[in-house]
Structures are given as C-alpha cells and as structure tokens.
Amino acid sequence: MKTTFDRWRRVLACTLGLGWQVMGAADAPSAEDASARLRQLRAEIAHHDELYFKKAAPEISDAAYDALKRELRALEQRFPQLAARDLSDGGDRTGAFATATHRRRMQGLGKTYTEAELRAFLAKTRRALGHEPVAFVLEPKYDGLAISVTYERGRLVRAVTRGNGLEGDDVTANFLALCDVPRQLAPGAPAPELIELRGEVFMTYAEFKRINAEIEAVGGERFAHPRNLAAGTLKQARPAASGRRLSVVFYGWGAVEPAARAPASQRDLHRLVRAWGLPGVDEARVVATEDEAWRAVAELGAQRARWPFPTDGVVIKVDDAAQREALGATDDLPRWAIAYKFVPAQAITRVRAITLQVGRTGVVTPVAEIEPVRLGGSTIRRVSLHNREEIARRDLRIGDAVTVERAGEIIPVIAGIDRTRRPPAAVPFVFPSACPSCGAVLSAEAGQAAVRCPNRACPGRLQRRLEHFASDDCANLDGFGPGVIEKLVARGWLREPADFFRLEEVPLAEVVGGKSAAKLRASAARARDRESWRLVLGLGVPGVGPGAAKALVRRFGDLEGVAGAAESDLLAGGRPRFEGLSEAAAKSLVAFLDEEGGRDTLRRLSAALVARR
Fold this sequence. Notes:
The protein folds into four domains: 1-88, Helix hairpin bin (Helix Hairpins), CATH 1.10.287.610; 99-341, DNA ligase/mRNA capping enzyme (D-amino Acid Aminotransferase, Chain A, domain 1, 2-Layer Sandwich); 344-432, CATH 2.40.50.140; 459-611, DNA polymerase, domain 1. It contains 22 helices and 19 strands. Strands 12, 13, 14, 15, 16 and 17 form a six-stranded antiparallel sheet that branches. A hairpin with a 2-residue loop joins strand 13 and strand 14. The termini are far apart.
C-alpha cells in the first residue's frame, strides 16, 4: 500500500490537485488506499484548522494547506462514496465570544495559483454572461481575519468574524478597542438603514515589528506572521491592555436594507466607503480582458513589497452587481470572484541536524540546521522548529528533504517534508532530557509545549541574557556580538551586566586584540549614559517590556530605586500599584528581585556605571 500511496501522492503534489484525469490507471489508488489517505487528510486538515482559526498559530503555509484541501477534494470526487461534510463547519469561532448570525451568508473565495487557471475563470465567467461586456475589479488580497461590520442608521452596532459563514464570533467590543474606525458614518453620501460591510482586520508591518521587538525584549517567542498576531489580538480577553493596534479595510457588502440602496458595483462601493469616512481599497485596478487582468496581477504583485500591510494574492471580482446576481454562488463560494494566490518563494534542501538553542529565560528551542539555500535574497541555514511537539507531530527527521519558504515573506519555515526521499537510516528525533548547555534536567509545565532549562546559571542562558543586555534597544554596546561575548564568558570576565563596565580591570587585548579592546571599552563608556529604563529593559525580566521599564524608572527614579522596590511597592491585593505595569510584569519583577538575586544584580550594575565616570 505504501508504494501506491507514494506514487499517487507525488503525482498529485506535482499537479496541485488538478484532477485524477492526469494519472494513468496504474497510478490511481484503490478504494482501500483512498479511504486510508482520506482519514489522514481529514485529521491533518482538522489539526491545521484548529491552529489557524482557534489558536492563530499555523504551522504550514497557505499554499501547503490549500494543497491538502485540493487533494481531499480530488479524492472525494474520485471516490464519491467516501465523501464527507466539509471539516471547517466551526470556522474561526473559538467559543469565547457570543455567537452572532450574519444577515447574509459570508462566503469565502475560490483560489487559483496559475495564469492558466485565472484565464479559465475569466473566460468561463464571460461565457456564463453570454459574452456581454464585463468589467473586472482587481484588489490586493489582504492577509488578516475576515470581518463583517454592521451599521444601522449610520451607527456601528456589530462586528462579527466569518465563523462558518452563517454565524461567527461577536467581537464588537474588541474591534472598537483595537481598530481606529468611525462609529458613525460620515455624511459624505446617504447611507442605507442597514448595511453589512465586509472587510479584513489586519496588522501593519510596522506594528508587527514593534510588537515583536517588545516580545523579544522580555524573552518571548516572536510571532512568525502579522496575520497570526492580528487574529490572536482580536480574540484576546483584554484587548485594550495589550497596547496593540489593528487596522481594517472594507472591500465588500452583505445584507443591505432597503435592498434598493445596495451598491450598484464594486467601484460604487469604493466610492461609498470613502464618502463614509471608512478605510477602503486604494490599490484597485479595473480591467476588461484576460490579458489586462494578468498584467494587473503582475503589477500588483510587483508593488506589494512596498505596501505597509501583508497581502498574499489578488482578488478578481465582477464589477457590476447585477451581473453578480446573474452568476450566483454555490453554498460556500461566489461564482463572480476568485483569489489569485501568490506562491511563496520556496527552496528544497535537507536537514543536516536538529540542534537546541537555549534562550535567556531557559526556553529550549529546536532548530533545523539545513543545507544552505538562497531564498528571498538571502541565504537560509537555520529554521526554527518552535517546540518538541511540532517535531513529533510532523515526524521530522535528520536527513529529510524539506521545502523551505518564508512565512509571509518574513521568517523562514519548513513548509513540507518529502518522505519519499527520506534516507533509510533516518530515525525519529528523540528530544533530549538534559540541557545541551549545562546538563540540567529539562522541564515542561503541564499544558505547555515549551521545554525549559531551570538552571539560571546555565552558560547558554547567560550568553543570551548578556546578548540581550548588549542589544541596540538596551545598552547598545556596539561591538559586543555573540562571538565576543562567548569568548569573554569563557574567560569568566562576563557573568552579569555590570561586568561590561569593568573591562578596564581585565587584559581584554589578550582575547580580542589591542584595537578591538579599545573600541569595546569606548563602547562601554558611551553606554554609561544610556537612559536608565533601557538598562532595566536589558535585564530581560519576563513581562517587563519598554513600557513597564519606563514606568518603573518614573516611579522609582533610577536603578537603585528599582532595586529597593518591595513587593508592596509593586502590588496591592495582587494588582499593580501604578499605570504602565501589568500584573504579570509586577509578579515577574518581584520574583526576579527576591528569588533570583535581582536586587544585587541591579545594585552592582548601578555601582559599575558610576565607578569610572
């Protein structure tokens, strides 16, 4: 059975699920093979739906997910007796919000990845309309979370996620707290009594970069893609407390009352959205032929790198609303629109090794060391595997041939594993039970995927802590890269942040040379004048990001003041005593000061800063 499976999976993967008709009879699987594969596909798709819709933490790319769905559909078409209901009945609903019903079904979009498929869709649409003149509108496909926002008598009354298309999560309060969107439509154009505006909640690249920088500053694991962060942010319990901001764009409509007041076309909707003072699509194109459409797709694809928001394709829509009605829709998809998805740049390589990286908070992250490949203008040698559960679930092994791509063109990820090319000697990866840096027994809290080294004196943790303190956002110790820090740690000259400012006391030139030693000492001298909050940030206390660090220095004056803070100065009845400090940050700081030697660390740092001024 395995040989047959491998053969038809390879063929199907090459054709992206374009149909069993491309296969010879010898290649087609038996009903028994198909039934087993369908069970695998449904389980895998359900797993990815859970990660994507409920946890906003997908492990594979959209293209890889779509390939799974296409394979599923192709098998069900080949074996209709094995077909089942669609797996995504729950959609993005989490169970944490009240359920709201869409007045008009909120549909998804069919997808295409090739020029030929796009041209075929446009030609089919033209034929279905009797070859009457058709204008198509092309818009960027925003990469976020679909939303339906209802305005009644010009006032925003409800924001609901797509859910299963019929009903979704009522996220009105979070939407208003996170998105800068008017609650009242501007009087630039008459508004219907009621209109469901369809759009996308997303996160700009600038906001994504800012949040990831703050997360890294407190020892957290950075997000891989703005979409994941946007979805997770919209579904969080206390959105206003996060300090995050989301954006929204409106590009469609659902129910309109009275119906006669509905937009007459997509271009009419664009005009109305602007007149109402709402954020709309500014990068749209209007075309009349297949050639014009393909040129517009290419133009938009070339421009997307300059846009401040994430996109993953182009949406092509029939412009005229009457023509849309004539074309109709299936239960899930309109026949008058399709999404052309950009296929991410990919490269095939092999996993040379799986190594473990110890972070400054003790989290041990597995990393795939791969044969170097060029991707997106840079050479990729290492890819994060996030945690041990991902390795086990995907059965990734040393020696595997893997497809690497940039998630959202940002962070490299392993998008697929070609098990047909797996070396015979490859064995399942066994996650070590001991820290690779210090040998301490690794631990994991119940319900968490993260594995930690509990030894605060672990050399790996120390290395990462010192790298963090020296980083641009903290002490900005120019020249103190990982290699230099590693050498100084090995000599015992760097054990804590204060040691950066005591290098006059050691023969630094023996390790880095005379010129470099002079530059490093000059860099440390400049760092003495850094703002105190940046040095507090550099301590890497979990939860204490830039905002909390600033609040602490405002409250206590300087490093000595922070060092002297008692639990009662930070918390009252389990709640933070002053603005800018979260409950989690306050508790983390108390633990750092009282249990981890933080008071002495701060005081030694303060003393070292003033010793040679």
